Amino acid sequence: MTKEWREGYSEKGKKDIGEVVQLKEVANLRREKVQPKDSSKNFNFVGLKHIESGVSILERWGDASEVKSTKARFYPNDVLYGKLRPYLDKAVIAEIEGICSADILVFTTTSKMIPRFLVYLLHSHPFRSYAIATSSGITLPRTSWNALGEFTIALPPLTEQEQIVSELERHFSVADEAEATIESELKRAERLRQSILKHAFSGKLVPQDPNDEPASVLLEKIRDEKEDQKPKRKKTKTKVKSTSSAKQLSLPLD
Is residue 240 part of a domain? Predict the structure, then answer.
């Protein structure tokens, strides 16, 4: 936040400027598991395919019938983070409870951090770069809580965290509205283009003279003119030379 905002914030005459901490000091990994035999309950199931990159709210999920192995348990306000590359930009707040894929880490926050601030932190470029650098594996590289927990951040006070989240969401809302407007205008432009083409090929793009010949007659005349303009081929005759000096063959009489 700005210097002016910080200077304007005080609580009982004491300014709280935050602290530098590691992620594991202000967030925890929820380690509660659900076995396949217990998945018969009406659990909501979240896999990596249900989380869109860059979004902050969980919007899709499946059901427990998809469960074939041990899964992690999560509850409302938990933060779900995909640890598998190249999906290291998948972090959402859960507004429901359920179970999730083993490739998703479930985070909770301490009293020093609000969940929505954590989500935006996980989407930030410095954190994503750190997650990529700490991932390992050949076929499907993954990062881990042990590595991510050591990520160092400058943690602002709770009041400033709420203000930062509020400003982020306000700007995202403006961006979403602009995107929706652009998409609507693009669809309108495409409809207008199709309408212009339709009018052009039906002869309605410009005012028409009712005395003009139909297009079919005009096309026939154009074809006839092209035929008339084609060069006519001259017929060539094959000449057989006859020479008076040709010798007659004498045939034997008997």
Answer: no
| pLDDT tens-digit map of 159-185 | 889 988 888 877 666 666 666 677 777
CA-to-CA dists, residue 115 to 79, 84, 92, 140, angstroms? 7, 21, 9, 28
Rg of the chain over Cα atoms, rounded to whole angstroms, equals 39
Both 166 and 146 in one domain: the answer is no
Q: Is residue 60 part of a domain?
A: yes
User: What is the rounded CA–CA span in Å between residue 193 and residue 205?
Assistant: 12
Q: pLDDT per residue over 45-69, tens digit each?
A: 999 999 999 889 898 898 877 677 8
How many structural domains are present in the chain?
2
Is the pLDDT at 31 greater than 80? The verdict is yes
Instruction: Indicate whether 74 and 194 sit together in one domain.
Output: no
Note whether 21 and 147 are same-domain residues.
Answer: yes
* CB 92, CB 55: distance < 8 Å: yes
DSSP 134-166: T-B-SSS-B--HHHHTT-EEEE--HHHHHHHHH
The model's pTM is: 0.65
Q: Are 38 and 67 in contact (CB under 8 A)?
A: no
